[in-house]
Inverse folding.
């Protein structure tokens, strides 16, 4: 970063592009009318084709890969469902019942074959915190020339509203794996943002919480993980706890108060393509 640029840069990423058409519509709306700058696409999502169409119509939106090993159908074995939970994935890994690299590679290849050049990688449910998944993700980043990988470790946040004890406990646990995480990515020549936010407030942030978070951004580049969307009947039937909360996040991402906070605190909204390789 050169000295003339603002000290606080923010990538606002929406997960789950391709999950449902309502989610897709909300993500594009949050980009066109709000502060959203990037999204990650689920290759096995039910609304994948709709997401690809919208991505082509919205070239200013960064598109990465939301690698999925939990929930949904396998691309390598289309007749099979992926494990329904992270605990189920762990059992499948231990029992050698899932080919992690092959599954994830098939997802990246499907997105590339659709004409999308991914700028970044992350994983559904942060499964790349598991060592064998991280190794596969790092390998794919190298092979496909995708330089940015999410670092799912929240920076300390003092925002309104209590953070559930479970998420606080998970956050403390994540600190234990941070050193190895960064070592693996660095060995592959891959990069992360300086900071990450969004895990502790997933499904619970509104405009007030987002404005407070913007005011607490540290110096450097931060990725904010979000889950906006339109809660239509398709989403209501889907297996996810994030339904009405997606509408709330969409309102927060497009609110005038949010834009004022960005301007007031001198935050620069960026995409991953703006950062690599110059940052």
């Amino acid at each position: 970063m050169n000295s003339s640029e603002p000290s606080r840069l923010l990538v606002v990423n929406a997960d789950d592009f391709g999950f449902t058409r309502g989610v897709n519509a909300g993500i594009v709306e949050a980009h066109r009318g709000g502060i959203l700058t990037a999204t990650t696409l689920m290759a096995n999502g039910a609304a994948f084709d709709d997401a690809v169409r919208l991505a082509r119509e919205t070239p200013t939106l960064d598109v990465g890969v939301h690698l999925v090993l939990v929930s949904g159908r396998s691309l390598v074995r289309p007749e099979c469902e992926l494990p329904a939970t992270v605990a189920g994935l762990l059992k499948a890994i231990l029992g050698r019942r899932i080919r992690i690299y092959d599954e994830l590679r098939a997802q990246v290849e499907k997105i590339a074959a659709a004409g999308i050049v991914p700028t970044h990688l992350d994983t559904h449910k942060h499964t790349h915190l598991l060592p064998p998944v991280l190794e596969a993700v790092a390998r794919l980043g190298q092979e496909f020339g995708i330089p940015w990988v999410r670092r799912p470790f929240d920076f300390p946040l003092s925002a309104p509203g209590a953070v559930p004890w479970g998420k606080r406990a998970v956050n403390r646990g994540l600190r234990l794996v941070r050193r190895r995480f960064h070592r693996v990515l660095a060995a592959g020549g891959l990069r992360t943002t300086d900071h990450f936010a969004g895990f502790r407030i997933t499904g619970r942030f509104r405009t007030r919480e987002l404005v407070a978070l913007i005011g607490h951004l540290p110096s450097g580049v931060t990725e904010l993980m979000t889950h906006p969307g339109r809660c239509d009947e398709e989403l209501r039937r889907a297996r996810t706890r994030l339904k009405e909360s997606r509408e709330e996040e969409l309102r927060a991402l497009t609110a005038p108060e949010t834009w004022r906070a960005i301007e007031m605190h001198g935050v620069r909204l960026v995409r991953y393509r703006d950062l690599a390789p110059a940052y």
In short: Residues 8-275 form a domain with the TIM Barrel fold (CATH 3.20.20.370). Confidence is low (pLDDT under 50) at residues 158-162. Residues 21 and 37 are 19 Å apart (CA to CA). The chain has eleven helices and eight strands.
